[in-house]
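Students often ask what a 'structure token' actually looks like in practice. Rather than answer in the abstract, let us consider F-box domain-containing protein, a protein of 552 residues. Its sequence is given first.
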Amino acid sequence: MSTLPLDLILYISDIGNLSIKDIFHLSQANKLFREKLSHPYFWHMVYNQKIGKIYELYGISEPIPESNYYRLCKEHLRRFNEIERELNDFNESKNYKIRDYITKYSLDLVFLPTLLYFLRQEDFQIKLNIRNKSNTVEFSKGVFLANLVAGQSFNIGIKMLTKFSEEPLNSRSYESFWFAFSLLQKKSFKLIKARNLFLEGAAETLRKLTTEYYPLPLVDNKYTFKTVDEYSNKVALYTQLLYQSYCDIRCEESNYMESTNLLSMYSGRHKGDQLLVASSLIKVVDEELEALDIRITSGEDKPKLLLAPMGTALIGDYCVPFLAGHPRVLKKEKFLNVCRSISEPLANRALLPITKDEIQAMICYYGTALKFLDGLDVLSPPCHPSTYGDDTFTFFGQFILPCLFRKEVSNFNMQILLQNVRDFLVNANHIYYPIFSRLPILSGYSLLIEDAPQYLPCNYSPSLLQGKIVITNRSDAPAIVVGTCNDSSFYQVLNAYGELERLRDTSFTVVDRVKAEEVETFVELVGLANLIYVRIKGVSLREGEEPRFIIE
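Now compare that with the structural description of the same chain:
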């Protein structure tokens, strides 16, 4: 292997999923390797592979402080070894003090690539062990890492939303908002790669339109238009054709939460609200055309590409409505006449660029699409379980986000915001306390959860029902019996939506003949990060016995 070209070694390290530690070991294997792998190009590529690529997936464009990529990789190795030691010395007490570890590892971006690497390893091993029906499948390390990555993702999303609130709107802001909002989901790491794949696919479609089917005008080897109107018409045409190419992923009626979850839409397993689809495609058009350095010979400035309500694209005197049916390029005046024939208030807003408040107001509470399924159907959903959303974040979007980044908030609204934040931070969301406590608007206010228990207060003493999968009468959903409520005959159960229910044993039915794949689906639906609060540390799949979740 020491005779292989550098690029081939890099390729092997990528497809072989070698860790940064493996690569450093490889670079010290012998004298020939030390000489070959000391080249600055090699460490530049390793940085891009193991660190830069992760930042790119999360939309992070942090400036690299220096060009010494070997040194940057060495620092990454140090953090890798630190997390590895935490896992090697792991015990359950770390999960019971998870907020301390969120503070330590989730508030600094430099730990993200390492945490994500170990989480993916653990997540894969858990699934493999369930599929192989191992006697006991341990979740604890995966649960620990899933919470740290959830903290990282939430922190990144909050920072992006802060930036969105502070900067003027442009054609790329819309997509950035929806992407940031989707990062607040604890399972977003499972879908994070979908964003670049979708946007690159749309960009490739646009490049074919601009070079093969409807080529841009070339004058002296430069893309040149005579007038603003000619340019606007052409951009509107490209937008229309791109809209048309993605009509099939548009949800005609946004009646469930996943339609406003951008990563879920990007994954291809759920359709998205028309405004989400339009936001993504507008971003692609703007970025691709900007990269071409297009000129207008009349000397006029190129008009900006903007977005109006219902996904209508605006450019110059043209618009491209993205309503039901096929998109069309229309003159703005003609579109306004159509709107006036329907409703004057509609016409008044039809061509005004959408505002930040209007974007935020779109986050409506419909609940996750899972709630449209019945009983055991939830464990064999038509979509991959990782694409289903956590509907606690619609509460965040509706009742916290509108006030969170305002420079001035009245005392009355401040008290409402504080109460909403406290309500959001109950149960499994308590892990986000270190993030909220550092937000400027909440500085100096007590959130009253500093000493709150980091797991569900209930009686965890073993019982015949503890750890069993049941179907609840109220939500008609699979659930795990966690324990009994203190000083009562009620049981605490965690359902597949991630909700806690307090029920009598007459309010649920034990499920028999549970399959290993149904156990895997349940864990995927709830998410590893949500298991920590109810002290679920694994599952027993002993042959001849019904699966039973292990609760400490």
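One point worth highlighting: Residues 99 and 431 are 5 Å apart (CA to CA). Ask yourself how you might have guessed this from the sequence alone, and why that guess would often be unreliable.
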